[in-house]
From TrEMBL:
InterPro entries named in the record: Ribosomal_L18 (IPR057268), Ribosomal_uL18_bac-type (IPR004389), Ribosomal_uL18_bac/plant/anim (IPR005484)
Gene Ontology biological process: translation
Alphabetized SUPFAM superfamilies for the sequence: Translational machinery components
Gene3D superfamilies reported for this sequence: 3.30.420.100
Pfam families: Ribosomal_L18p
The protein's name: Large ribosomal subunit protein uL18
GO molecular function: 5S rRNA binding; structural constituent of ribosome
Family stated for the protein in its record: Belongs to the universal ribosomal protein uL18 family.
Subunit and partners: Part of the 50S ribosomal subunit; part of the 5S rRNA/L5/L18/L25 subcomplex. Contacts the 5S and 23S rRNAs.
Annotated function: This is one of the proteins that bind and probably mediate the attachment of the 5S RNA into the large ribosomal subunit, where it forms part of the central protuberance.
Gene Ontology CC entries for this record: cytosolic large ribosomal subunit
Organism: Halarcobacter ebronensis
């Protein structure tokens, strides 16, 4: 029973961090969309969102690329995502870590985006 409570507590703390992050970052626009990231135990996905129009401009998923989630594969996913962003004419984004702590896979993804010419 305590395992279920631990999971609920973990998820509620992430939800609190998520609200705090969303409150402090700027809204995404067509010129500078909000890049949000989702990490499960198996896969990593990211999408560029135009909050003004309410549409997803570019998305990438590690499952479609045949990769699981780790730091090395996060770099590969970020490289593909940067290619897709550049093809859509997007050079600057607002990074939304979606309540995850900025380390490990999330930090590797963000650093790889910077290395591929996307300004965060």
């Amino acid at each position: 029973m305590s395992r279920a409570k631990d999971i609920l507590k973990k998820n509620s703390l992430r939800a609190i961090r998520k609200k705090r992050v969303r409150g402090s970052i700027a809204k995404g626009t067509a010129q500078s969309p909000r890049v949000t990231i989702f990490k499960s135990n198996r896969y990593l996905s990211a999408q560029a969102i135009d909050d003004v129009a309410g549409v997803t401009l570019v998305a990438v998923n590690s499952k479609a690329l045949g990769l699981n989630v780790n730091k090395a594969n996060a770099v590969k996913v970020a490289a593909q995502f940067a290619e897709n962003l550049k093809a859509a004419g997007i050079e600057t984004v607002v990074f939304d870590r979606n309540g995850y702590l900025y380390h490990g896979v999330i930090a590797s993804f963000a650093d790889a985006l910077r290395d591929n010419g996307i300004k965060l």
